[in-house]
Amino acid sequence: MASIRPTVRTASLLLRSSARRSHSTSASSVSASEVSHFSSLASSWWDPTGPSRVLHLMNPLRHDFIASCLFDGAPESTLKRESNPNPLHYLDVGCGGGIFAESLARTIPLPDPGAQPGTETVTRAASITAIDPTPTLVQIARDHARKDPKVSAHLQSGRFRYVNCTLEDVIAEAPATESSSDVGGKGKMVRREDGFDVITLFEVLEHIDTNASRSPLSFLTDCLRLLKPGGWLVGSTIARTWPSFLINQVIAEAPWPVGVVPKGTHEWRKFVNPDELESWAREGLMRCSDLEQGSVMRSGSGALRGMRWKCAGVVYFPGLGWNFVPGSDCWGNYFWAIRKGV
Amino acid sequence: MRPISTSALRPYVCPSCRFAGSLNRRELGSKPAPVTDIYDVVCVGGGPAGLALLAALRASPATSKLKVALVESQDLDKARSWKLDPQHFSNRVSSLTPSSVSFLQKIGTWERLDVSRTQPYQGMEVWDGETGSKISFDRSMETSPFEDLRTVATMTENANLVQALLSRIAASGDENLSIFSNTTVSSIENGGTDEPDGPDLSAWPVLSIVPAANAPQSSASPVKIAARLLVGADGINSPVRRYADIATEGWDYQRHGVVATLSLADQIPAPFPIGTRTAYQRFLPSLGGPIALLPLPDNHATLVWSTTVENAAYLKSLSPGAFVTMVNAAFRLSMSDLKYMMHMERPSTPAADVNEDPHESELTWRLQHTPPVPQLPPMVTGVQEGSVASFPLRFRHASTYISPRVALVGDAAHVIHPLAGQGLNLGIGDVASLSSTIEYAVDHGMDIGDTLTLERYTADRWATNAKIGGTCDILHKLYNVRGQGPVAWGRSLGFEIIDRLPFVKGFLMRNADSS
């Protein structure tokens, strides 16, 4: 119910183009019908009463969930707590039209000319990089960001960047030696040498084709590789249960005025249950450790030391909006988070 | 919700500036365009609602960093230096409900008020002048022994409140704060794009503000300020509402509210517990509305008498002695007696001797033939010089309180009949809701001018205000039916039932309070 067609397409494109590795230079891997589909959605992406409304309404809960993760475990080492109270670097994977990325960028404080140490914000964000493989969506996101002078200023200074690339492109990059060398946002370099503090993956996972060569497991592993030790990988998805079948497939995709989601948005069998996700997260962390160490020995449970798993269900009440409902993570929409051990 | 393409792009130009504005623009064409200052919140209107919003935003840690501006056409320095001696009271007084008071405490304003000039009251006597049915509220009876006396409301002069709000705002420092006092809005238009890569302000309201005509530096050129969120706290004829193209419906009651500051005789017997005060309201169907006497400190009281335009003009033309007599008569005499006294010849010259005033002798004579009722207020003994005034009563309700980058609060959003004394309380309720909406938005990375943010505010307030405004309207209409017909019988039955069921009464009081 939360996800709408644009996100689906984003996710599928993300995967399809990454499999071919030919997306970034041309639109050849993207079918003409999909491009025209996005063009038709472009005007409604930021329409508060349009098809993305349910997704817009969910956005504040993403902030609440991230805040609860940061409260449970701060990504930066407690030993060298920086003088800057807002040091966190964010990466938003599959940003689409930028609903979440722009709202996070708005919480980044503007540089204070008085050079006083600012106060701590809720997100503690210092920068955000948002990636998406679809040029049209990135353009929508950039155009919308210009409508807010504060966000626009962050785009100009490079604290907020939209990059049109896939997750695999980022992995393929050699880690940037100095992240600030790319200030200005014109370059394509996304990867940070010391990794990101928070990586977000909202409404992406449930659209991943588990039968393809690229399963959610390798996708998750790639995300975890970009994460700083102690950092959080945060996302939201839908559980594969009979209530979610009823709500997401039967009610939400029903014809107007009952339905709130375009037909064909969700495929119930691709939904991910929390327990499956948790086991993928464990496996992903171990694979991640293998790649980092480059040793012939496979990593064992030692790679999971310090790992944290969080999960919280949300329910949409028509007319009232989204709410966290304890125990509802086994019914339908839920937020999840994995913390990489220090 | 209106589509941005049509109405948001329609500029508002105030009628008096329409001509001058076009001349100015031609002049400006030769000069480089003035630099636009960008604010997070621009509040038009520096009355109690606008100032309370500013004070609330400055008081909350989440919103204190927002860049805010206030535009007020009056000189706020006069409001800052307002002072009256303890025996004189302004005639613009509002009854603040306990929830309004606790909001003002929360934003650090109540402690800056001159509390000795405010008067809480615990009891209320309301009765029907036609049928005599009555209802009395006494909140002091609900008080547990471990707390202060519960109040119905606290009478507060608007000037006292405005002064406290200004002092609270001044105490928050002047960082990110601009107060344009003595300044009017000459036009509101949508911005544009200054540079190709720079911010795009085409959906943002940009205000041109000029010093008011009576201001010392009235020749200065207009300043342009852009608003992420433009708040209209600019009263019943709100220019901000017109810019946003928000429809408003309503009607004029063809009634005026006559206000005055009065002094009272001592209450006999003395009230118990000591220090408790009572408000009195008597519905006068034949004269067009209720008369209310609300307590002020030291045996003073403020009068609000809703009556027809002719009666209001008659009352204002009376000598102070005759005015006082009419107020006393209005609480005591029958409808027919009152109607007669409303048409008595006024003496051509002010009476030299009070005893010769025809109103006075008429009241004395008629009182002997009127059976007394137990709930009478103390006799009014005097009226403060120059405090008698009147204002038209109207009903207005905007179809919505929001539009992209625009929110309305207070009288710009709703004007109601004053018979329940709820007008300012609704405005403060709006401010409490809007400021907490902004707070939530800032904490969650939302754009505070976005419809998705503001719809929380209008969803919270519109129905509440419609309910209270509608109730006052129904009461007004019910108590304008004269005579002893079925309507009078029905409303009296309702009064009597409510008066005899304590839990219903308690529920009503709490409901009025929590609004």
TrEMBL record, chain A:
What is this protein called in UniProt? Answer: Ubiquinone biosynthesis O-methyltransferase, mitochondrial
| Recorded metabolic or biological pathway in which this protein acts | Cofactor biosynthesis; ubiquinone biosynthesis
The enzyme class is transferase
CDD domains reported in the protein's UniProt record = AdoMet_MTases
Which compartments does it reside in? Answer: Mitochondrion inner membrane
Q: Give the highest taxon in the source lineage.
A: Eukaryota
The UniProt entry lists membrane topology as: Peripheral membrane protein
Function text: O-methyltransferase required for two non-consecutive steps during ubiquinone biosynthesis. Catalyzes the 2 O-methylation of 3,4-dihydroxy-5-(all-trans-polyprenyl)benzoic acid into 4-hydroxy-3-methoxy-5-(all-trans-polyprenyl)benzoic acid. Also catalyzes the last step of ubiquinone biosynthesis by mediating methylation of 3-demethylubiquinone into ubiquinone. Also able to mediate the methylation of 3-demethylubiquinol into ubiquinol.
Q: Which Pfam families match?
A: Methyltransf_23 (PF13489)
Q: Which organism is it from?
A: Aspergillus lucknowensis
Q: Where does Mg(2+) bind?
A: 203, 206-207
Catalytic function, reaction form: a 3-demethylubiquinol + S-adenosyl-L-methionine = a ubiquinol + S-adenosyl-L-homocysteine + H(+); a 3,4-dihydroxy-5-(all-trans-polyprenyl)benzoate + S-adenosyl-L-methionine = a 4-hydroxy-3-methoxy-5-(all-trans-polyprenyl)benzoate + S-adenosyl-L-homocysteine + H(+); a 3-demethylubiquinone + S-adenosyl-L-methionine = a ubiquinone + S-adenosyl-L-homocysteine
Q: Which UniProt keywords apply?
A: Magnesium, Membrane, Metal-binding, Methyltransferase, Mitochondrion, Mitochondrion inner membrane, S-adenosyl-L-methionine, Transferase, Ubiquinone biosynthesis
Q: Member of which family?
A: Belongs to the class I-like SAM-binding methyltransferase superfamily. UbiG/COQ3 family.
Q: Which gene is the coding source of this polypeptide chain?
A: COQ3
Automatic annotation (TrEMBL), chain B:
PANTHER family, per this entry?
UBIQUINONE BIOSYNTHESIS MONOOXYGENASE COQ6, MITOCHONDRIAL
Compartments, as annotated in UniProt: Mitochondrion inner membrane
UniProt xrefs under PROSITE patterns: UBIH (PS01304)
**Which InterPro entries has this protein been placed in?**
FAD-bd, FAD/NAD-bd_sf, Ubi_Hdrlase_CS, UbiH/COQ6, UbiH/COQ6_monooxygenase, UbQ_mOase_COQ6
Q: Which gene encodes it?
A: COQ6
Which family does the entry's similarity section mention?
Belongs to the UbiH/COQ6 family.
Which HAMAP family does the record cross-reference, listed alphabetically?
A: COQ6_monooxygenase (MF_03193)
The question of whether Mitochondrion is a record keyword is answered with yes
Q: What is this protein called?
A: Ubiquinone biosynthesis monooxygenase COQ6, mitochondrial
Q: Which SUPFAM superfamilies match?
A: FAD/NAD(P)-binding domain
Task: State the coiled-coil residue ranges.
Answer: none
The entry's function note states:
FAD-dependent monooxygenase required for two non-consecutive steps during ubiquinone biosynthesis. Required for the C5-ring hydroxylation during ubiquinone biosynthesis by catalyzing the hydroxylation of 4-hydroxy-3-(all-trans-polyprenyl)benzoic acid to 3,4-dihydroxy-5-(all-trans-polyprenyl)benzoic acid. Also acts downstream of coq4, for the C1-hydroxylation during ubiquinone biosynthesis by catalyzing the hydroxylation of 2-methoxy-6-(all-trans-polyprenyl)phenol to 2-methoxy-6-(all-trans-polyprenyl)benzene-1,4-diol.
